[in-house]
Each structure stands twice: as structure tokens, then as C-alpha cells.
């Protein structure tokens, strides 16, 4: 008698430790809290203060991307979980990286002040130097937990950290801490997260300096590093140009319009990718065709959903800004209408990159980012000359589209 096998449901429903429900809950709560924090603090402080804090966070983003080891992704993607000694070497590497980044940021604070018109507020950059150190001290058990798809634990940590970040950030802004409130809230959240990874997650690596035993991760992680550097250029290029040429106030308007579009579109896909990357990798280990079928389902759903959201947000842009942020921010509406398209493509790219990295083709993601950089180099100068700041925003969108086209081509070649 022939047995008929039904196709497995790709998403685990319910509230088991590995259920996608936890990823969705984490995405809704964490991104919602981030949105509340930025919107409330933005309304309290105005564009100039947001611009000053953005410069400090820009410095952190640049330093972290230039020193990205790719070890977290390599641990998740690898065929076998790391041993306790290997996890110790991962922790040593990441903690040392965080310390070096912090020292570099403190030393470069006067240069950032001179280049981005901080008005002497170098303390913002110096305070932000603690963020990479706090992140580097977290236990590598966090990555192992992601690898094993224990999303319930990840969601609990991320939500708790975000509650502290949002609560303390808004309270400090109301108390008169100014742009420091954004950074202090983030520091409290990151410190809590790092402590909890050691208390609640296992296996705990030995806390001693160890550098050897993780050479087998280098082949995969080098492409992650290269991709991070290129993504740094594509993601932070606009902020560097606006901040340096136009100052903190204009950077604040640019950053808020971009951030709001990111919250409503790209952040959701980024949160989903935390589920998709280890899930695609697990399916790929069981058989490439299984991962490919699952990917197609997510891709179709992502394209349909993003198209609907973009249409709604472009029509609702002006009343949204007026109601949420106030009249002081209405000048950012034209940029926001471009950024929603930009972030929709970025969200699609997150799904594509998760799949390609999960099947071991991290090189394709790096090449896609290089193509995006080339598109920006060619298109930004004439776009800036003809259309000003909006031309730069459209150039970024075209660059993301070229990135998506290349990754779609590489996915097609996987079949």
C-alpha cells in the first residue's frame, strides 16, 4: 500500500520554543518600541538634536562595519555547532573588537566634531563608544541559540532590552538630557542584553583569552566582512554627505524620514530575517530543494505585502508626519515618499540575502552590494546636480534595485 505524504508546513505555528510566532512577536514589539522611542524623542527634541545623536550613531556604524568579523553568521550557518572552546575563541575575538572600536571612537571624537559641525558636543561620540564594547561582551551562546532556532529565548531577551531602551530614553529626554537620551537608553538596553546572555543562555564559553580554533569560520565570515563594508558605504553614504555638507539640522530631517520608512518596512524584514536565515540553513542541510521551496513561498508573500504597504504610505505621508511629528517635520515628506520605495526594496533584499547566505553563497551578497556601490558612483553626481537631495534618494533606490536584481539572478542559478 502506498503512503501519501503531505507537505510539511514550513512555519511552526503556536508558541513552542522554535515557533515563528516568537519572531513575529519580537518584530512587532521591538520595532514598535523603537518607533515609539524615536518618534517621541524626535517630537520632544526636534531635528537638530536628532541630527547630533545621528552623527554619534553614524560613527559607531562605520567602525562596527569596518571591523565586522562575520563570526555570528558563520556560527549559525556552520554544519556543526561550535565546541565550548571554539565559543570561547569567538567571545575573545568579539570582545576585543568591541574594546578596540571604543578606543578608536574616543580618539576620533574631535575629528567627528570638526567634520560634522557638532558644536563641541564630542561627548556624544565618546559616550557612543561604549555601545560596541557592551555588544562585544555578550555571550556567543546567543548565536548558538539562534542557530538552534530557540526563538522564544531570543524574543524574551530582545523585547526586555527594548523596553528598557525605550523607557529610559524617553524618560531622559523628558528630564532634559537632550540628544544624550537616545544613546543612554541604548546603552542600558545593550548592557542588560549582554548580562542576560551569560545568565540565561548556554553553553557558556570559558572567560579567558583564546584566539585559536575558529579558522574554519574564516572562509565564510570573510564574505560577511566584505559585505558589511560595502553595505556600510551604501547605507551610510547619504548620512555622511548630508551631515557634512548641510549640518545636524538637515541630517535630523533626512534621518527621521529615512528612519520612519525603515521602521514601517525594512525593519520588519530585518526581524524576519533572524528567523529566515537559520531556518533556510536548517532546511538546506536537509536538502537544497526543501530550502528552495520554502524561499519561494516567502518571496511571493514579501513582494505582495510590500507593494500594498508602499502604496498606502505614499498616500498617507503628509498627514502621518503632521500627526506624529508635528509641523516642524513636514519638509521631510517628499523624501519619505521616496524612502518607502527604497526601504521596500531593502526589505526584499533582506529575504534574498538570508537565503543566499543560508545556502553558503555569501559571496553573491557581497557582489550584489558591490554592484549597488557602482550604481551609486555612476548615478549620484548627475542626480545631485539635476534634482538635489531628492536625486540622491532616488539614486539610492536604483542602487538597491540593482542589488536585488543580481541576487535574484544568483538565486535562479541555485536551481
UniProtKB/TrEMBL annotation:
Q: Repeat as a keyword?
A: no
How is it placed in the membrane, per its record? Multi-pass membrane protein
GO-annotated cellular components: plasma membrane
Q: Where in the cell is it found?
A: Cell membrane
Which InterPro entries does the UniProt record give? Poly_Biosynth_Transport
Q: Which UniProt keywords apply?
A: Cell membrane, Membrane, Transmembrane, Transmembrane helix
From the record, give the transmembrane residue ranges.
48-67, 88-108, 253-277, 297-317, 323-348, 360-380, 386-409
Pfam families to which the protein is assigned, alphabetical:
Polysacc_synt_3
Q: What is its main location?
A: membrane
Q: Does the keyword Hydrolase apply?
A: no
Task: Give the family this protein belongs to, as stated in its UniProt record.
Answer: Belongs to the polysaccharide synthase family.
The record's section on PANTHER family has: LIPOPOLYSACCHARIDE BIOSYNTHESIS PROTEIN WZXC, PST FAMILY PREDICTED COLANIC ACID TRANSPORTER
Q: What name appears for this protein in its UniProt entry?
A: Oligosaccharide flippase family protein
Amino acid at each position: 500500500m502506498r503512503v501519501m505524504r503531505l507537505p510539511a508546513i514550513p512555519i511552526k505555528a503556536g508558541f513552542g520554543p522554535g515557533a515563528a510566532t516568537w519572531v513575529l512577536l519580537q518584530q512587532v514589539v521591538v520595532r514598535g518600541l523603537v518607533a515609539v522611542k524615536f518618534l517621541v524623542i524626535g517630537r520632544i527634541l526636534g531635528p537638530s538634536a536628532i541630527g547630533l545623536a545621528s552623527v554619534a550613531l553614524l560613527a559607531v556604524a562605520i567602525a562596527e562595519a569596518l571591523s565586522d568579523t562575520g563570526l555570528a553568521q558563520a556560527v549559525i550557518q556552520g554544519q556543526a555547532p561550535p565546541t565550548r572552546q571554539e565559543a570561547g575563541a569567538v567571545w575573545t575575538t568579539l570582545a576585543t573588537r568591541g574594546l578596540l572600536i571604543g578606543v578608536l571612537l574616543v580618539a576620533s571624537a574631535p575629528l567627528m566634531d570638526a567634520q560634522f559641525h557638532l558644536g563641541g558636543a564630542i561627548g556624544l561620540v565618546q559616550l557612543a563608544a561604549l555601545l560596541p564594547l557592551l555588544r562585544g561582551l555578550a555571550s556567543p551562546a546567543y548565536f548558538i541559540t539562534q542557530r538552534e532556532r530557540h526563538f522564544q529565548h531570543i524574543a524574551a531577551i530582545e523585547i526586555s532590552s527594548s523596553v528598557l531602551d525605550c523607557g529610559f530614553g524617553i524618560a531622559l529626554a523628558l528630564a532634559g538630557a537632550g540628544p544624550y537620551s537616545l544613546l543612554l537608553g541604548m546603552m542600558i538596553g545593550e548592557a542588560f542584553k549582554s548580562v542576560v546572555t551569560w545568565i540565561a543562555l548556554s553553553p557558556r564559553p570559558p572567560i579567558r583569552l583564546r584566539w585559536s580554533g575558529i579558522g574554519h569560520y574564516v572562509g565564510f565570515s570573510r564574505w560577511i566582512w566584505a559585505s558589511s563594508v560595502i553595505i556600510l558605504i551604501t547605507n551610510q553614504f547619504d548620512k555622511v554627505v548630508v551631515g557634512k555638507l548641510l549640518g545636524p539640522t538637515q541630517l535630523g530631517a533626512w534621518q527621521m524620514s529615512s528612519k520612519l520608512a525603515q521602521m514601517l518596512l525594512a525593519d520588519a524584514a530585518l526581524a524576519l530575517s533572524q528567523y529566515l536565515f537559520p531556518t533556510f540553513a536548517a532546511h538546506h542541510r536537509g536538502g537544497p530543494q526543501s530550502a528552495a521551496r520554502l524561499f519561494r513561498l516567502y518571496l511571493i508573500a514579501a513582494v505582495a505585502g510590500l507593494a500594498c504597504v508602499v502604496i498606502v504610505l505614499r498616500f498617507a505621508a503628509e498627514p502621518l508626519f503632521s500627526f506624529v511629528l508635528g509641523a516642524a517635520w513636514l519638509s521631510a515628506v517628499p523624501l519619505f515618499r521616496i524612502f518607502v520605495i527604497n526601504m521596500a526594496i531593502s526589505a526584499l533584499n533582506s529575504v534574498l540575502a538570508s537565503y543566499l547566505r543560508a545556502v553558503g553563497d555569501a559571496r553573491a551578497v557581497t557582489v550584489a552590494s558591490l554592484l549597488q556601490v557602482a550604481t551609486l558612483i555612476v548615478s549620484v553626481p548627475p542626480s545631485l546636480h539635476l534634482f538635489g537631495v531628492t536625486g540622491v534618494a532616488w539614486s539610492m533606490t536604483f542602487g538597491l534595485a540593482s542589488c536585488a536584481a543580481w541576487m535574484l539572478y544568483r538565486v535562479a542559478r541555485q536551481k
